[in-house]
């Protein structure tokens, strides 16, 4: 299954189009200005000899420039914008000027420690930065038809292959990402060495003689120091880097969540190109562990701020949840590979859950503020880890971070969202997501245009119009989301049976204007967590369609800790066109302590002398919280239970 390219797909959707336009009109310019102010672009100018000065910022700052460039190029692919094109052209020229004669390019090492190149794989992100350059180069080629940045990328890739190829330096990247990028570069150029190197990096991770292990114990030989959470009590813990065992032997998702997602995505790309069924089985096993034991109801992953990592099974704290925005992006792209490999709808379902909740929460409605970490509970006193890192653990989104991966990651995903909607193989057209859009796809040598109108995520209604260039027989596969009920699908006016959580496969002769009409219901669902999840004991989360809801203090008659939701009570569903740029809200029944029982302020009293009363509280989509000022918030809310 191959995704439709950005040149052949576009989005026209009531929900997504305004958000993508906000990224185009606000976020792209806002982030570029921060790249300038923080010295990230100036580092390239200094490395190119066009300016004097010292390197500014963190050693991985090049990657933020490349990610911005990738996102900007996605917009240029579909929109003509002379000002943005000029900015992109200038940046591409600057990057090329900074490259050394042998192909090496990394401004930190060029300006700070030129003698230490390739010596500190586990900390200093050289290969990671290169991977983001490769992705930007391919996006630039697609947008402009030029190969100037691809030439820079291939020169660097050749340099890396000479260093790390089959007969070269034994080592893998401390921060993955180059694996998936090398496969993209292979597809762009046809150069087999790039695919071989990606496979090499995937298969040699976790070797007994791991270079990462060696560097962790010999920091005096390299730039920088070892991470505290890699060496403890004299023992190497490779889980942080997914380096504790060969990937094919790993049973659980471990370590830094973003690194893990990029590794699994790269491994998925290798499997797509090589037909490696064993590798696919490994990825499916890891996915099951993540989704059944180590993932938030929003799709967020990586529960601990210490190491930005996965921890143990069912360890999903709410108030200190990390759930990095970049990890959500990583999950979306990994699930895309699993969807391509298996054609199973559950991977697209998880993409939707993550996209509408864990990913979208990372960006403010105006497109200029970002969450790095995404808590699932916020107390009235703010974040409990705020003093440790006031920016990363704030109760409000921030305008920038010293580590700015999230502000540069979100735009490139939303700018390329159209590529997620459709896919095809030799004989089938897949509709993976219910998003208003249009695409042109070649199926079984027939050019097919598909147009989609959709009311998602607020209502379960979509209509597809299929127009082949001439009547043709092929299969169309429509995903029926797992959270739909009362599903009805008609194909050219004929009722067809469909099952939630699966693809509906329709093979027939299609003629111009044939329609598929999908209708269903989004019931309000009160979700309970596995009893082993201590942080959600006695509580429920609320979901409608793909959207997970939360409570904010300003929408509640009482402090949130006093509420006990009534899952069997009445629920009023209403769409408020003014609130948070238009959202569907839920008015939920709840119990609260009757205040008269506590008149006079006793600290304690017998349960028999207290009573409760009913009230109503409004729930909003989780992605929309913290857009109306600082406030308390909860995803998991105490509830009356018939389960105990």
TrEMBL record:
Q: Which InterPro entries match?
A: 6-hairpin_glycosidase_sf, Beta-AFase-like, Beta-AFase-like_GH127_C, Beta-AFase-like_GH127_cat, Beta-AFase-like_GH127_middle
Sorted alphabetically, which SUPFAM superfamilies does this protein's record hold? Answer: Six-hairpin glycosidases
- The UniProt record lists the Non-reducing end beta-L-arabinofuranosidase-like GH127 catalytic domain at 11-417
Keyword vocabulary terms for this entry: Hydrolase
Q: Which residues form the Non-reducing end beta-L-arabinofuranosidase-like GH127 C-terminal domain?
A: 524-637
Q: Where is the Non-reducing end beta-L-arabinofuranosidase-like GH127 middle domain?
A: 429-518
Q: Which GO terms describe its molecular function?
A: hydrolase activity
Q: Which GO terms describe its biological process?
A: carbohydrate metabolic process
One Pfam family in the UniProt entry:
Glyco_hydro127C
Q: What is this protein called?
A: Glycoside hydrolase family 127 protein
Q: Which organism is it from?
A: Halosimplex litoreum
What does UniProt list as this organism's lineage?
Archaea, Methanobacteriati, Methanobacteriota, Stenosarchaea group, Halobacteria
């Amino acid at each position: 299954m191959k995704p439709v390219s950005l040149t052949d797909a576009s989005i026209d959707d009531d929900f997504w189009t305004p958000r993508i336009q906000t990224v185009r009109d606000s976020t792209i310019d806002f982030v570029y200005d921060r790249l300038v102010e923080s010295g990230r672009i100036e580092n390239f100018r200094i490395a190119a000899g066009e300016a004097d000065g010292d390197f500014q910022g963190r050693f991985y700052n090049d990657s933020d420039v490349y990610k911005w460039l990738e996102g900007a190029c996605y917009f240029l692919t579909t929109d003509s914008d002379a000002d943005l094109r000029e900015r992109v052209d200038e940046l591409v020229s600057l990057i090329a000027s900074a490259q050394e004669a042998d192909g090496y390019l990394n401004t930190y090492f060029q300006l700070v420690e030129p003698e230490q190149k390739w010596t500190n794989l586990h900390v200093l992100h050289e290969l990671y930065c290169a991977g983001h350059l490769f992705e930007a180069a391919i996006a630039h080629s697609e947008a402009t038809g030029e190969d100037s940045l691809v030439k820079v990328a291939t020169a660097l890739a050749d340099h890396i292959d000479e260093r790390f190829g089959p007969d070269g330096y034994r080592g893998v990247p401390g921060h993955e990402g180059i694996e998936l990028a090398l496969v993209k570069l292979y597809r762009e150029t046809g150069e087999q060495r790039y695919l071989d190197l990606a496979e090499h990096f995937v298969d040699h991770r976790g070797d007994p003689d791991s270079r990462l292990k060696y560097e962790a114990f010999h920091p005096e030989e390299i730039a920088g120091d070892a991470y505290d959470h890699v060496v403890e009590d004299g023992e190497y813990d490779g889980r942080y880097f997914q380096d504790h065992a060969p990937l094919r032997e790993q049973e659980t998702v471990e370590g830094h969540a973003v690194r893990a997602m990029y590794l699994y995505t790269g491994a998925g790309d290798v499997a797509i190109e090589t037909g490696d069924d064993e590798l696919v089985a490994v990825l499916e096993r890891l996915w099951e562990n993540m989704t059944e034991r180590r993932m938030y109801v929003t799709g967020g992953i990586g529960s601990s701020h210490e190491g930005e990592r996965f921890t143990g099974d069912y360890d999903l704290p709410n108030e200190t949840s990390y759930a990095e925005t970049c990890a959500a992006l990583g999950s979306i792209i990994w699930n895309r590979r699993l969807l391509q490999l298996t054609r199973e709808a559950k991977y697209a379902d998880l993409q939707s859950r993550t996209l509408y909740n864990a990913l979208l929460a990372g960006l403010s409605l105006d497109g200029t503020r970002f969450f790095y970490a995404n808590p699932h509970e916020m107390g009235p006193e703010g974040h409990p880890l705020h003093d440790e890192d006031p920016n990363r653990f704030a109760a409000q989104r921030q305008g920038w971070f010293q580590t700015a991966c999230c502000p540069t990651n979100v735009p490139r995903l939303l700018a390329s969202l159209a590529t997620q909607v459709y896919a095809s193989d030799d004989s089938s057209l897949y509709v993976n997501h219910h998003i208003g859009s249009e695409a042109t796809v070649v199926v079984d040598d027939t050019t097919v245009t598909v147009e989609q109108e959709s009311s998602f995520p607020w209502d379960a209604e979509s209509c597809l119009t299929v127009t082949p260039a001439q009547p043709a027989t092929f299969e169309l596969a429509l995903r029926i989301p797992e959270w739909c009920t009362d599903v009805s699908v008609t194909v050219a006016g004929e009722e067809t049976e469909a099952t939630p959580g699966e693809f509906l496969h329709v093979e027939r002769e299609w003629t111009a204007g044939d329609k598929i009409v999908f209708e269903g219901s989004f019931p309000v669902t009160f979700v309970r967590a596995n009893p082993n999840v201590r942080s959600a004991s006695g509580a429920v989360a609320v979901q409608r369609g793909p959207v997970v809801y939360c409570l904010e203090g300003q929408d509640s008659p009482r402090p949130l800790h006093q509420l006990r939701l009534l899952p069997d009570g009445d629920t009023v569903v209403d769409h408020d066109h003014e609130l948070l740029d238009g959202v569907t809200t839920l008015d939920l029944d709840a119990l609260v302590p009757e205040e008269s029982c506590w008149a006079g302020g006793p600290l304690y009293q017998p349960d028999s002398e207290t009573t409760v009363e009913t009230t109503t509280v409004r729930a909003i989509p989780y992605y929309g919280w913290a857009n109306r000022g600082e406030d308390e918030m909860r995803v998991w809310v105490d509830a009356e239970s018939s389960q105990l």
